[in-house]
Amino acid sequence: GFIYATVTEADGSLAFLKKDITTAKRTIIERWDIQGENDYSVDISLGVFSDGKCILYLTKTTYQFSEQYNMMQMVSDTQAFVYDLHTGKRESLPEEFSNWNVYAMCGNRLLVAYSSYRFSEQEYYDLYGENGDYETYLYNYIPAEIRMYDMETGESKVIATEDEGLVLTTDFCNSYGYV
User: Fold this and answer.
1) Taking a C-beta distance cutoff of 8 angstroms, is the pair 61, 45 a contact?
2) Interval 105-164: pLDDT, tens
3) What's the pTM value of the predicted model, to 2 decimals?
4) pLDDT digits (tens, 9 = 90+) for 148-163
């Protein structure tokens, strides 16, 4: 058998690899050379494994000074990939699911979720001060949502939303099951 991992190599590159548990032989599946990239950081992490596939997240984080809030802000963008562990091929999830999490995978269907925390007005102004614009924040706020995504057809269906009372926890299975 094999174990799969994401690692930072000695040269600073990031790698997704498999390691044979009998021979300890490491095989690099994919490598990202990020040296010389000083204006942002990159991280990779693994998600769910199922049906000979796994989810890999590639997150790029930039640090930008916001004149509006007079402070540094961290801005992250995460792209998810579905890796076929038998063929080595990867498929990127559609742009609409950038920054979403894949909670379950069964065949060609993925259960994806977007979660965010809606600040109260007081929490918002405590964080951003008097220069903040709470109305704009609410206008741009994206409520939590769970969708079923079919990789074959590209269609997705809303399963539950924050407006219906959905509260996503660290382990969404505490609230929702998937069979």
Assistant:
1) no
2) 888 888 888 777 778 888 888 888 887 788 888 887 777 888 899 999 999 998 888 778
3) 0.72
4) 999 999 999 988 887 7
Please give the biggest Cα pair distance in the chain: 60
Q: How far apart are CA 145 and CA 167, in angstroms?
A: 9
Three-state SS string over the chain comes to: CEEEEEEECCCCCEEEEEEECCCCCEEEEEEECCCCCCCEEEEEEEEEEECCEEEEEEEEEEEEEECCCCEEEEEEEEEEEEEECCCCCEEECCHHHCCCEEEEEECCEEEEEECCCCCCHHHHHHHHHHHCCHHHHHHHCCCCEEEEEECCCCCEEEEEEHHHCCCCCCCHHHCCCCC
Tell me the per-residue pLDDT of 51-97, one tens digit each, with 9 for 90 and over. 899 999 988 888 878 777 777 777 888 888 999 998 888 999 888 88
Distance of alpha carbon 152 from the chain centroid? 21
